[in-house]
From TrEMBL:
Residues of the site described as Transition state stabilizer: R20
Domain spans labelled GHMP kinase C-terminal: 269-347
Protein name from the UniProt record: Galactokinase
Cellular component GO terms held in the UniProt record: cytosol
The gene coding this protein: galK
Organism the protein comes from: Actinoallomurus iriomotensis
Amino acid sequence: MGFQETYGREPDGVWHAPGRVNLIGEHTDYNDGFVLPFALRQGVTVAAARRDDGVFELRSLQSRSAAEVTDPTPGSVDGWAAYAAGVVWSLREAGYQVGGASLLIDADLPQGAGLSSSAALECAVAVALCDLYGIEVPRPELARIAQRAENDFVGMPCGIMDQSASLLCTEDHALFLDCRSGLSAQAPLDLTGLTLLVIDTRAEHELVDGGYADRRTACEKAAELLGVPALRDVTDLAEALSRLGDPVLRRRTQHVVTENHRVEATVGLLRAGAVGEVGALLTASHLSLRDQFEVSWPEADVAVEESVRAGARGARMVGGGFGGSVIALVPTARAERVREAVTEAYAGRGWAEPRFLEATPSAGARRLR
Ligand code: GAF
């Protein structure tokens, strides 16, 4: 991938970390709840070589800018390089003394499409640095280290889902993760006769903006008013709603509590080998994200409606919201019709042409060579 041309030597190794699609369980991770993501084939690849001078040289094939840092601290690095430098900082904060490295980064994930390109970058750098310096970190802990890079170095208060998906997923499975205990299990995702169509709505999202942090704060406020550690702990939803005076907090709570139930129901269906039956849960999740959590956007709503009208079993927005992608579960025989229907609906509204990707549940981060 051009490492020799860039750095004048061969890399010591090449690592890959995937992006993710969350099948269901949105805005539940930072409420100590459940999520069910799977890893994509697409992601971030890092070629890397150790350096003895303590310097980190960061270059990306997708960007002209390069960064050179020795002792990264929060606020000292901007842009895409902050996600990589943040991992160095976070590993060191956790007591893992990584030395310098030359890194060349390549990505085949669209940025801003809500497919977790940032977590893929963090996780690819994390596994590369650990291998280069012979450091063994259990994957759940490495996920927390990568999350901390994003929370405290980049400044985005994300939960643990995306980094966990990138590090812990396995081929042909979705990752059922309890975000409180950190325990996870693999749920089979047998797509025979079905296509998981990712629709990039071309409305780019930017989670460092206020909407995501605002939702998180509202959830914490609701939990505090209800006297529970997190919304995960609400056991009687109707009673909880009757105790919340603020209609916004009621809507946020309703989404989180019902979404956790939808994740558990989806896992039950996957374990029964009934992937085709999860469509209604996906669509219910979307409606809840649209109406209760209010993080959907017009292009996503139209993609969901048109997909279902054209024969999808169900569809929903994925990720934090305010832009990004939709996933539709479609009988493979109808996939072309769904693509056409969404493309036509966008053209009719004068929107940018949507992009499609067929998702293949793939393995988590690994060394390629
Ligand atoms: C983003 C965040 F990074 C995740 O932690 C999660 O909260 C998600 O939005 C919403 O489910 O991807």
